[in-house]
Amino acid sequence: MAGDINNVGQSGLSYVDQLKQLQDKSKPDETTGKQDLKQEDFLSLLTKQLSQQDPFKPVSNDQMIAQMASFATVDGIGKMNNQFETLNSSMTSNQALQASSLVGRDVLIPGSTGVKTGDGQMAAMVKLPQAVDSLMVRVENQMGQLIRTFDVGSKPGGDSRVVWDGKDQNGNPLPAGKYNVKASGLLDGQAKEFEVSTYANVNSVLLGKGDGNVLLNLAGFESPVRLAEVLEVGKA
């Protein structure tokens, strides 16, 4: 019959006290960060305490089995967590490998700020709740100054791609840099602003800092964008 493992044994210390002492001795090394306390240590303490049990205060075998099962459960959870970490690392690596095919391609990301490169164009996507007769597009610089307005005509409801040719109102090419694209139109006789997303070119792909995210470095953007935020991938 198993004894109460919380009782004080011949050593004068309870099982809990001995466990605390062992935990203090097995704190992670500051240089290696390793933890030496394992399930075997807990079982060793339990066995030692049982050998010093008080025969006048026994407990049932069911309680003993429950205590052993608790150790096994904790160990199993630890192993399962390690397996999940390995699986997550593998999935992240696979995502990064797949995302590497995006390098050099355009992706659609949330936000009305896009990057114009050289004398080229800049594309955006406008989300329309319903069809509009006249979709007006405004292009502003980073200072908020209006530099171009143009009408792209009637558009059906849904996503509509619009392209700015990179020129100002007088037809002069503008320098490379960031520009804001805004879109508006009449819905039920009232002027409405619509949600705009912009395209950006992928420079490189990198893994997140242990958080399982795959990040994309985009041309003209200081901060990377999570792969999960990409709304659309342009054609190769």
TrEMBL record:
Signal peptide: none annotated. This is Basal-body rod modification protein FlgD. Residues 22-38 have a biased composition (Basic and acidic residues). Residues 19-38 are annotated as: Disordered. It comes from Vibrio tetraodonis subsp. pristinus. Required for flagellar hook formation. May act as a scaffolding protein. Belongs to the FlgD family. Residues 94-230 form the FlgD Tudor-like domain. The keyword rRNA-binding does not apply. Residues 118-185 form the FlgD/Vpr Ig-like domain. InterPro entries: FlgD (IPR005648), FlgD/Vpr_Ig-like (IPR025965), FLgD_Tudor (IPR025963). It comes from the Bacteria. Keywords: Bacterial flagellum biogenesis, Cell projection, Cilium, Flagellum.
